[in-house]
Amino acid sequence: MDEERAKRIELQEEQRALSLQLVASQQQELNRRAELNIISDELENSRKKHAREIADLEFDLQKKDRLLREANEDLRACRNDLEQERETVSSLKSALNAQSNAHLTLTAENRSFQTQFTALQAQYDELLRTNANLILDLEAERQEKIEMRKEATENEAVRRKLHNMVQELKGNIRVFCRVRPVLPSDIPPSSGYQPTNSPNPSPHEELELIRQELKADISFPDRRDHREINIWSSSESATGQERKESYQFMFDKVFEPECTQAEVFEEISMLAQSCVDGYNVCIFAYGQTGSGKSFTMEGGASNATKGMIPRAVDQVFRVAEDLRSKGWEYQMEGQFLEIYNEAINDLLGKHEFDKKKHEIKHDPKSGSTRVTDLTVIPLSSPTQVRALLSSAQSRRSVAATLMNERSSRSHSVFTLRITGTNAATGESCEGCLNLVDLAGSERINVSFGNGFGTAGSNDKERLKETQSINRSLSALGDVIAALGEKSERGDKHIPYRNSKLTYLLQNSLSGNSKTLMVLNLSPLASHLNESLTSLRFATKVNNTTLGTAKKQSR
Ligand code: ADP
Ligand code: MG
């Protein structure tokens, strides 16, 4: 038991110690806790203080963060911009390179242009000098031209005078004689001759032989001037012997059968010139039907065969054109009429037959002649004249078929009237070219024998026709003869009024007019008597030329 007590006491002692220890540790604990509380307060204070600071810092941070973000954004934008700028710079650089190359090339080019320019400048200066010289030359030439034009105008006046003098010396009334060739149509079928278009044509020699047989004995002895024609006619004498008679005629020109239209016109062309100079010209084709009057006057369609009318018209237009450079302006008009049984028919009228009654009016003041109600066409070109002639021709052929060869029983008169003015000299002139295809000159009995009329009612008509032809042809011969005598003896009555034809042509035959008669002859022996009659008529006309020839000696 003691031990238990001792242990108890020990345990109690230990318990007391422990309690003391516990109280100490509790005290410690309390101290620590107080300390902790203080620390905790301090901590709390510090925490509070720091929380504010942290909040401030956080706010700051957020702000900075935002700023940073913004700065980043800006930076990115700047980078992009930079990138773009870089690209721009690079492209600018390459552009600059290219420009620089171009600049180099341009500089090189510029240099070469500069060289060229210098050369051109030198050339230009040279040209300027040449130009100045040329202007001087031109001025000199202009002066010369003015002088020459003046001279030409003066020369033109002199030429007109001389031309007229030459024409007058040749005689204001002239007669040509033209013998046509023997034609295939002259060969009678009874001769046995086969023309070239038949299946068995006769040889050329045979044709020549037949031609010789048909031909009258005509010769042309004057080989130099071609002015003579001789005809031999044989007849039987009372004693039955063959008698040969020779007839010699002389004209201003004789054209042999081989002569071309151009050769005939060569002799006439001067008259066309006269007419442009303001003179009146009449050209007549005289001869029996079939002797070549229409061929001479109108001719064929080709250039070689065209007749005196188209040639004269061409010539008149050509001369008028030439004279334009000398200040002359011309106006032309044409008319074409027919005189049948002493009545005038308009060949240019619109209707097939001319039913109008035409009158001839002379104006004594101007010396011009007009036919009332007649178609007068202003003419501006030779082709127009040709068209006009062919339309007249077709009208005549209609009349011819309906009225039995009327064209050879009427006189046709083509008139080209030319009016010229010269503004430079103040001159003016009016000329008239009359081209007359006369009616056939065959005598009345021949006319019947030639088949122009048939017996019966036509005879009266035919007789009237033939009488008026004879009357007008002899009136023409009388007028021309009287004109010739007039120039020899001064004033004399001229019987213009004896026929429509001479009355119509009064102004163109009188005064300072020029008249040409082309006597057309058939070469045939069967027409010999008719040819002799024609030759005698023409000789009567021709002798009158002596009148004007006398002027030469004055
Ligand atoms: P006219 O008018 O005198 O009655 P033409 O002129 O009608 O005569 O001529 C009769 C024929 O003779 C026509 O066929 C014509 O072609 C022809 N003739 C006339 N003269 C010649 C000539 N010099 N050359 C060729 N043929 C001609
Ligand atoms: Mg005829």
Automatic annotation (TrEMBL):
- Using the record for this protein, list the coiled-coil segments as residue ranges, or answer none: 1-156
The Kinesin motor domain covers which part of the protein?
172-544
| Protein's UniProt name | Kinesin-domain-containing protein
Name the InterPro entries on file. Kinesin-like_fam (IPR027640), Kinesin_motor_dom (IPR001752), Kinesin_motor_dom_sf (IPR036961), P-loop_NTPase (IPR027417)
Residues that bind ATP, according to the entry? 287-294
Could you tell me the keywords of this UniProt record?
A: ATP-binding, Coiled coil, Microtubule, Motor protein, Nucleotide-binding
Presence of the UniProt keyword rRNA processing in the record: no
Q: Does the keyword Nucleotide-binding apply?
A: yes
PROSITE patterns from the xrefs?
Answer: KINESIN_MOTOR_2
Which family, according to UniProt? Belongs to the TRAFAC class myosin-kinesin ATPase superfamily. Kinesin family.
The lineage is: Eukaryota, Fungi, Dikarya, Basidiomycota, Agaricomycotina
